[in-house]
Amino acid sequence: MSASAQEAEMETAPDSGLTVSPSLETAVSLDAVFAPVRSLTAFEETVDRLGTAIKLGLLPPGTRLPAERELCTRLGIARSTLRQALVALGQSGHLHATRGRGGGTFVADPQPPSAPLSNLVIAHWRETCDRRLTVEVGVAVLAARRADPEAVAVLEELLETIAGLNDDWRAYRQADIRFHVGLAEATHSPALVPVMTEVQGAITGLIELIPHPQEILISSNQQHRRLLRAVKKGDQPGAAAAMVDHLQGTEHILAGLLPRF
Q: How far is CA 223 from the centre of its chain?
């Protein structure tokens, strides 16, 4: 996708908002995806923000992004910076643009194949788990303290969905990610949502390297339910303990099943 084609597309793109599936809209808010970025690394952070959201399925294939004017306002960046980021994501195969009535910028379907993780990333997998533990335990505590009935209802609905996906790993993982991002949203601390998204992106790269037997997914579902019960009761220590058990379970599985090099 050339810069000139991207610019032409942007001028003709409709001004209506993001088009996503109803289940995604009710599962997690996309405000974090389009939250303002820092000015010093605006281009790089915009590519990172959109690329991670695409990788995690928060922006599924076929999703139409908001029009340029709206994106610039929501991200707090200049038009030239946005176009630069969209062109980069187009060149990488993650986005594509169409012109004319009903046109816009869409998440590509299919997505380009993911590059394999380097041996260095695999070698430092425990550091990825440590960072995830630090973020997610704090999120669990704040969710137990602040979650309102509406947020709890969304999380309960997600767990119902997850429970029926034990034989579909890809769909299971996307719903699992939405559950964890939903916990961050339940804290009502907007800054935590992109942090949660980032750690989910990092751990997903590792999880995808191992097998996914149904017994492991069933056990994970049980841990999710225990965690949500604590959040629903406002039990902060219980939520922290449940999250620790859940994440340490994942760490044990990675320790046993990650490939050696």
A: 20
Q: What is the mean pLDDT of residues 130-143?
A: 97
Q: The pTM is what?
A: 0.67
Beta bridge partners of 104: 98
**CA distance linking residue 101 with residue 39, whole number of Å:** 33
**Alpha-carbon gap, residue 142 to 81, rounded angstroms:** 35
Range among 97-101, 201-205, 213-217 with highest mean pLDDT value: 201-205
Supply the DSSP string of the chain, one letter for each residue: --HHHHHHHHHHS-----B--HHHHHH--STTTTS---GGGHHHHHHHHHHHHHHTTSS-TTPBPPPHHHHHHHHT--HHHHHHHHHHHHHTTSEEEE-STT-EEEE-SSPPPPPPPPHHHHHTHHHHHHHHHHHHHHHHHHHHHH--HHHHHHHHHHHHHHHT-TT-HHHHHHHHHHHHHHHHHHTT-TTHHHHHHHHHHHHHHHHTTS---HHHHHHHHHHHHHHHHHHHHT-HHHHHHHHHHHHHHHHHHHHHHSPP-
56 touches 174 (CB < 8 A): yes
Contact 18, 30 (CB under 8 A): yes
- The amino acid at residue 77 is I
Closest by CA position to 10, among listed 76, 70, 51: 70
Contact 86, 95 (CB under 8 A): yes
User: Looking at the predicted structure, is the pLDDT value of residue 243 above 60?
Assistant: yes
Quick one: pLDDT at residue 115?
A: 58
Task: Say what angle helices 79-91 and 68-75 make with each other, to 10 degrees.
Answer: 110
